[in-house]
Write the structure tokens for this entry.
Amino acid sequence: MHTARTFAAKEQRRHPTLLHLLKHLLMRLLITLVALFYAVFPLRSQHQEEHGTCGYTGISPWIDWYQRNGTLFEAAEDGDTAWLYVPVTLHLVGTSNGTGHFPLEQAITALCWTNHLFEEARIRFYLMPTDPVRYYNNSSWYDHDFSGGFNMLNTVVPSLRNRLNIFVVGNPAGNCGYAWMDAVVMRNSCSGPDNITWAHEIGHHFSLPHTFSGWEGFDWNYSQPAPPTISGWAVEKTDASNCYSAGDGFCDTPPDYLNYRWPCDAAGLSTVPQKDPDGVTFHSDGSLIMSYAFDRCSGRFSPEQIAAMRANLQTEHKSYLQINTSMPELPDDAQVELVSPLDSTQFVQYNHIELKWKKVPGARYYVVEISRTPTFSQRFYSETFVDADHAVVTKTLPNNWTLFWRVRAYSDWDLCQPHDQAQVGSFRTQNLSATNELERRVAFMLKPNPATAAHPAQWVAQVENAMTVALTLHDAAGRLCWQDEVRLYPGENTIALPTAQLAAGIYTLGVRNELGLAVRRLVVAE
């Protein structure tokens, strides 16, 4: 409820009139013009060295209008308890050579956690069934400044206004993320499990400023009383006398001046005390998502923040609201039935494994994982497949090991399936094309191949049990150029080869012990 506003025109706003509605229409026009202004002049970035900051600053035209005209929404807020459903398209950006894309499984996990954080707001995000995910190979988008961000968003977003567009890149203009040009842009390293950055940036997208609004990029000695104004904006006081006209403009978010990532104490408050303009000491509330408190401290939006986001979603972003009822959920005990392989009596080629499972009704995405342990604490492989019932894994896995695999199912709507319901299968890897026991027990490769003086070769071997092998290098004429005896230990072993000392040509690497002999060809280039 917006019943405690302290603006001078408070009484005139209690009863909306035709004049107020005309002002509303004019404000909508102003919002459009300001949005065009932002398209030409990008948002300022904080450019702080500390990892985890946000590129959003200031107060949006929409939230300024909303906070000045909150009485227009009071009646709706009293009974506004309906769920609001927001379709999302994920834009996973990689480099021009096709590397660096944020894994789809992790993006789904991030949306799952975001739904948890927005549950109290009764806002739920789901993948847009007709356009859930897009991939791009563009290095200038993957690692960009705001000019590159403008190019990316201006290229993609204008034709996709009817959904929340979330871009995940390697470096979004030096920030952990930003909300701009009707989209959200996230850094892949700020998108891990239990990270609140997605919720923080989506909060900006739905109009919310920082709790420390006005202090972005401003250095201050917090042991001193704060100035009355900062960055042209009134500084909020602890007595709430100016809470609706200062700071973030909400009265249920207490003063906060900390514009850097900060830890909280056991009570969830900042460890750094601050003083308001009257000299009253206080500590910032770390529970608020729109603060810069560490992720472990944050986890909620205030009721007034929630009301503002819902109002924004129902006005400025009403094109998102395409459904008003929930879609079918996958059962919490839904389990992907594995077909093959099922247990370690089945041997598979260590670098070419075919996995098969049965589809789950209503599911669309299948996350396949392979691990050394049945608890999946260490994963060798994780990949998401769409509308699939099998996968062929060509990644080289440890040879002669018992490995475990599982498949977890998700739908466009249901992004939070529990891990502990998955059936776990197993298999044993072998080199089925091996001609002797040594090749069956040791998986190895040469890289790079060809090698150069600047990039010498390495012999990389995977073994399950320790063993000793003799290594030899012979040239094309059969002359011995190098030899060594090395001890291999369980796991991956890397041995440097002295190719920088060799003339350009073709060489043969021999690997020998009591189990047999294996040979590989090595090319040394100029």
